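sorry for the late reply, my laptop died twice this morning and i had to redo everyting from scratch. anyway the thing you sent over, i finally got around to it. pasting the sequence first so we're on the same page, its 639 residues, then the predicted structure underneath. double check i copied it right bc i was rushing
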Amino acid sequence: GIAVGMATNIPPHNLSEVVDALGYMIDTGEDAEFGEVYARLPGPDFPTGGIILGHDGIIDAYRTGRGKIIVRGKTHVEETKKGKASVIITEIPYMVNKTSLIENIVQCAQNKTIDGIADIRDESDRDGLRIVLEINRDGDADLVLRQIYKRTQLQSTFGVINLALVDGHPKELPVMEMLSIFLEHRRTVVRRRTQYRLDKALTRAHIVEGLVKALDMIDRVIAIIRAAQTVSDAKDGLMNELAFSDAQAQAILDMRLQRLTGLEREKLEAELASLFADIERYQTILANRPVLDSVIKEELFDLKKKFGDGRKTEIMSNYEAVSVEDLIPENDIVVLLSKDGYLKRKGLDEYAVQERGGKGRKGSLQEEDEASLMAVTNTHKDIYLFTSLGRVLAIRGHMIPETRTGKGRLISRIVSLDAGETVVSMYGRSLEGKEYVFFATKGGIAKRLALSEIVRLTRAGKRVLTLDEGDSIAQVRLTSGEDELLFMTRKGRGLRVSEGEFRPMGRTARGVRAMRLGAGDELISCEVVHSDKLAMLVSQLGVGKRTRFEEFPIHHRGSGGVKAMNLGKRTGQLMGSWAVAEEDEVMVATTHGRIIRVAASGIPILSRTAMGNITVRLDEGDSVADVSVISSDVLTEDE
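ok and here's the structure:
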């Protein structure tokens, strides 16, 4: 023969709710509506309790006969007197083995798939299930719980397959059809039962009628019996002379003499009346569909009254699905890109704030691998990468590899880069509240692009700028359309220009001349002017200062600018300018892989033509690679 494999997986439901739904369908018949049935039968009810997440899977199963229902164990968080948190599991999904679940959690904790669990105990007893997960003192109970839901069977899927044999054929049944078939089955059963009871009652009534008739003519009955030679003769005599049936004659012969008393006669007459009432009721049930249905409904509600109980499984209408990002702590990070193209991240809190002139902490790059770019962002935010070919790509902070001692991962293995294409700028700030993205190239070209052109970026990226041969992006900033911009060159020239002088352009446009450059000079930075901030300038050898933006007069684009910093052998070339508030902090990355974090308030405020003071103390041969500002908003959130 040919083997056919078919599976059915019908979840258990609450008896009281099923009875309510059946009662509604009996009352309404063909006019029954799905919504009304669903209101009375809202979903499966598992004996182990738990929580069903959402209604979509239930509705699919009820409408089509198939669906996926997400079931989550029931938990809560308790705090000890010492302030430590514990996650308490009191209910688990249906068909999930408690021992297997605990082993799964232990394994995930050991291999760090779930981080933050200090201890696991099974405190289940006769009063119910209780699994205790102690959380590390610095752990996040909510984060641990989300990880457990994602990584273990504490949240699982019950695949509903309402497959049943209908008239000998397999069929997947929607809930209303299933209930209708069950009701029709009950009608068949009750009809057969009623017919059986009717037949029994008719038979008994016939016998009792014969006994009552015999008592009415007891003298003649006794005479016939006394005159008969055999039992057979007596039976024939009763049938022939008094018109009793075979069954009645036999019952008369079997009757004891005590039945001849007046009391026994009354009992027989009462029994006969009761039998006639039953016969009439049975005949009414069989002849009348509404009466039949009322019997079924009454019996169903008797079952509900006797065995019904409350719902064990909760249905959560509004819930948040566990995403990958939910499993990752939201932390501020420092992203480092080496000149050899290795990308990595480290926690911002690993770098303590130092006094001006500090030497910083080793950034964990390989000795021969010099730092190139740095940005401060968040594990739950995008960092924007601008390439030498004029493209912009986006990558989530948590997707950048985290490492303390290694040099990270090749950026070409994280994002899609063409042959010879390199990342020349990184932007880690939020795009919210801005209208335009402003590009400045080393060749002195600038371009304003509507921010809407680069939304919904992927790691494949978009082209945002057409570059001249040999030119590359120097800096990227977000603007409102009404800002002022301060351009800086490698040789210490600064130009303050109104943003209105740069009209918005399309993604493939080249841009326009922003600043006239001297021989051997290049544009290195572009910063938005803020009335409540100062311009911080940092040189190649770690000399820095803060200067008021007002000291830079506004000129038209294409001008050569004014002197921004007194440069010399002690300073090296200028690395750029950044807008800083008094409460901000500054991260400086050096080519030898050191990271220095200093308070912006510790950098002196000097005139535009001044040289500046040592901001970062460097080893011989080391130099500043990149600078990033940590906004006071980020610092406030961390506190």
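Residues 330-638 form a domain with the Neuraminidase fold (CATH 2.120.10.90).
thats about all i looked at so far, will dig more tmrw
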